[in-house]
Amino acid sequence: MSSETLAEIVAAVAKEVEPHRGEGRVADYIPALARVDARRFGLAVITCDGEAAEAGEAWAPFSIQSISKVFTLTLALERVGEGLWTRVGREPSGSRFNSIVQLEAEHGVPRNPFINAGAIVVTDALMDGRPPADAIPEIRDGLRRLADNEAIDIDEEVARSEAATGFRNFSLAYFMRGFDNLKSPVDEVLTTYFNQCSLRISCRQLARAGLFLANRGLDPLSGVQVTSPERARRIASLMMTCGHYDASGDFAFQVGLPGKSGVGGGILVIVPGKAAVAVWSPGLNEYGTSQVGALALERLVARTGWSVF
Ligand code: GLU
Asked: Mean pLDDT over residues 242-252, rounded?
């Protein structure tokens, strides 16, 4: 790292991306997300030593969307163990996040846990036959504990909006049910999935929640071993190869860190052994990743040298 302090670096990155604010398109296929102003921006970094730096609206809550898939994968692996990998693959998809074509060719076993089909299987695994009324609070409370913030909650309006328009997710789920790769009823799995995607979180809370992945599965600030070092490493490697759908390769090329994006405009990034970073800006690129968020991360890595490559 250069001689600049972390706070100076974060402030400089926010300034550099300022002229780009508003670029990209807000997700409009979920009506409740379409109303968010594309110019908003927040950035937070927390190091494994507990040093924190932030810029912009780092405390503003936004819709976590697919970043929740990192946390449900962690929970599902803790609950059902490595057997999960018989139901979902570990390869980049090269397809859109909600593609159906690939599922047909691969007999209902989704390519990876971060495309929608894979995440729906992961949610089914963590439900383990239990109803949404048990699984949803477990996911929410897990995130509250990791983020060290009891205020984190589900945005009911976004959850309703997703359920009302999630025809593709219903198609994916019924398809997998047809291949016997879902155990719970489709409507229960999707109720849980839509609620996990509708959690509201800020950059500051998200970076805090992801810190265990930067520290071999051990939350360095609470001292809790969230998952084993081996699992933390594997989750991070999947974030690197599959965290941005069919633009995962480009994100690795530009940023070079494990990350997971969500269509709410958030991105969580892990700097192994060092820090967790969360950025939020709702304008998305054509692949569903925050355009200004990815730019900010690229600038951050250029200044810190934090790429794993
Ligand atoms: N809830 C969204 C969906 O299932 C998540 C997509 C994303 O964030 O990439 O369509």
From this structure: 93
Whether the pLDDT of residue 94 is over 90: the answer is no
Q: Residue 65: CB within 6 Å of ligand 1?
A: yes
- Give the residue numbers annotated as catalytic, written as ranges: 66, 69, 193, 245, 263
| CB neighbour list of residue 62: distance below 8 Å, 6 or more residues apart | 36, 40, 42, 200, 201, 202, 264, 265, 266, 280, 282
66 Cβ closer than 6 Å to some ligand 1 atom:
yes
The domains located in the chain, with CATH, are 6-62+201-304 (3.40.710.10), 66-199 (3.40.710.10)
Q: What is the pTM of this model?
A: 0.97
Ligand 1 atom nearest residue 245's Cα: 9
Q: What is the pLDDT of residues 252-306, one digit of tens each?
A: 999 999 999 999 999 999 999 999 999 999 999 999 999 999 999 999 999 999 9
- The type of residue at 58 is A
